């Protein structure tokens, strides 16, 4: 891609400030009850309608099956009645009722989505967690004092400040979004819109042990995910042992640790990628569509891939960089040189029977993802992958700040300057001649 284009990147970062105020806990108790009552009413007014989908298989229409689809009540008069009902005996500002109603609808919408995908049962959602989602109309933010005043009742407020907090400098000049109250803390989302001058497109193929990238400028990139995998394998074993001994507490402890270390890895990976490749559009496969494709994969592969938290990785990356998604269909079966689609995908190396191209399958996929995005954006492009450039190897240091070089690779690696301290170390792996 030549030239550059400007893209807006919406960024949200959530930070928490501890609070200790019995009035907040009282509010949360009331809010939880009100939210549940709103859900109850919406649930009772769902309209179930039959739908007859046509299922096609191999060009043939299979006997249509019918199933019931829920429609949430959304008309104005229903919403007004719901509001009036909840406004009776409310001890707090009326906007808190509106906040609860809005949250009730988002709970119901996400239940509906999951229900239609077959991931949720026909059971009314229950509010288990204690929280209260605020509305902008209930908040007054003083950016000079770095404080938020939240209205409980007309004339009664709770005040929270993030002045002097460790993250205060990170969110300098950012907007405060709608906060979430918990019993012991308040979660504040800080938002900003950054303009990114996009100069580069990188296609990323998501694999269980690596993230394989391609861009014409850098060439091929391999991000090593094995430390994440081995960490997870270790914890899976520990958890299995705890489970077999019936130690629920120990199991939970390992579970929390595993999640924290996973989060840590993903944070470092996302921030490392944006620092190593600034001004880039990162193109990933669309995971929603991937489910359909991966069903055809051998079982072992699916399981290993399931260990890598791709949704979390893409989500984290999208907070820091411009992310785009393309369909994963045939990305590792299409010849990047001549476009021929091979039938099988056996072995690590892709061999094109039409033009003779031989290339690592993961590299093939990365090139195809890169090009699919360019086509989508209207850049017809043919690019013969340049193998002479070697491959940029990137590792994420899980512990500490020193770059990681694994012994098995030492011989093949030549260190290039580690560009970002500790977070990510990068090396050029020369092609074996
Ligand atoms: Zn070919």
Describe the 3D structure:
The protein has 433 residues and is α+β, with helices and mostly antiparallel strands. It folds into three domains: 8-20 and 135-194, no CATH class; 22-49 and 68-133, no CATH class; 199-429. The protein is 35% helix and 27% strand. It has nine helices and 22 strands. The protein has helices at 22-44, 76-87, 94-116, 226-244, 248-276, 287-294, 299-307, 310-320, 361-376, and strands at residues 5-18, 47-51, 55-57, 60-62, 67-71, 132-133, 139-142, 147-153, 156-161, 175-176, 180-181, 185-198, 200-206, 210-215, 219-224, 280-285, 322-326, 349-351, 358-360, 391-396, 414-415, 424-429. The protein has an eight-stranded mixed β-sheet with strand order 17-16-13-14-15-20-22-21, with helices on both faces. The chain starts with a strand and ends with a strand. The model is unreliable at 292-296, 400-425 and 428-433 (pLDDT under 50). Zinc ion binds next to loops.
Task: Compose a concise summary of this entry.
The chain is an alpha+beta fold and 433 residues long. The protein is 35% helix and 27% strand.
Features:
433 residues, alpha+beta, 3 domains, 8-stranded mixed beta sheet, 5-stranded antiparallel beta sheet, 9 helices, 35% helix, disordered C terminus, binds zinc ion
């Amino acid at each position: 891609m030549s030239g550059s284009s400007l893209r807006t990147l919406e960024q949200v970062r959530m930070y928490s400030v501890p609070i200790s105020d019995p009035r907040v806990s009282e509010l949360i108790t009331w809010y939880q009850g009100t939210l549940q009552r709103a859900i109850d009413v919406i649930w009772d007014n769902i309209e179930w309608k039959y739908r007859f989908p046509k299922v096609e298989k191999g060009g043939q229409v299979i006997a249509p099956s019918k199933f019931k689809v829920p429609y949430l009540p959304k008309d104005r008069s229903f919403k007004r009645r719901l509001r009036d009902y909840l406004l009776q005996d409310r001890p707090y500002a009326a906007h808190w009722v509106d906040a609860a109603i809005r949250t009730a609808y988002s709970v119901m919408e996400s239940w509906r989505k999951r229900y239609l995908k077959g991931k949720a049962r026909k059971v009314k959602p229950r509010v288990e967690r204690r929280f209260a989602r605020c509305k902008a109309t209930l908040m007054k933010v003083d950016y000079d004092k770095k404080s938020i005043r939240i209205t409980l009742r007309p004339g009664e407020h709770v005040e929270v400040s993030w002045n002097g907090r460790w993250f205060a400098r990170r969110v300098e000049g950012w907007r405060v979004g709608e906060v979430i109250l918990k019993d012991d803390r308040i979660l504040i989302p800080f938002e900003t819109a950054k303009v990114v001058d996009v100069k580069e497109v990188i296609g990323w193929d998501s694999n269980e042990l690596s993230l394989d990238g391609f861009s014409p400028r850098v060439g091929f990139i391999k991000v090593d995910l094995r430390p994440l995998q081995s960490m997870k394998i270790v914890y899976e074993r520990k958890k299995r042992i705890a489970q077999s001994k019936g130690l629920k507490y120990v199991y939970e402890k390992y579970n929390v640790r595993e999640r924290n270390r996973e989060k840590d890895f993903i944070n470092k990976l996302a921030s490392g990628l944006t620092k190593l490749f600034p001004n880039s559009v990162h193109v990933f496969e669309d995971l929603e569509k991937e489910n359909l494709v991966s069903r055809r994969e051998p079982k072992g592969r699916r399981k290993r891939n399931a260990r890598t938290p791709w949704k979390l990785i893409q989500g984290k990356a999208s907070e820091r960089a411009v992310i785009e998604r393309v369909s994963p269909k045939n990305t590792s079966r299409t010849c990047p040189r001549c476009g021929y689609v091979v039938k099988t995908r056996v072995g690590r190396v892709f061999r094109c029977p039409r033009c003779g191209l031989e290339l690592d399958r993961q590299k093939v996929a990365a090139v195809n993802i890169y090009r699919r995005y360019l086509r989508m954006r209207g850049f017809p492009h043919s690019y013969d992958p340049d193998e002479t450039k070697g491959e940029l190897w990137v590792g994420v240091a899980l512990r500490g700040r020193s770059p990681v070089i694994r012994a098995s690779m030492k011989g093949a690696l030549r260190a290039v300057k580690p560009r970002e301290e500790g977070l990510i170390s990068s090396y050029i792996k020369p092609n074996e001649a």
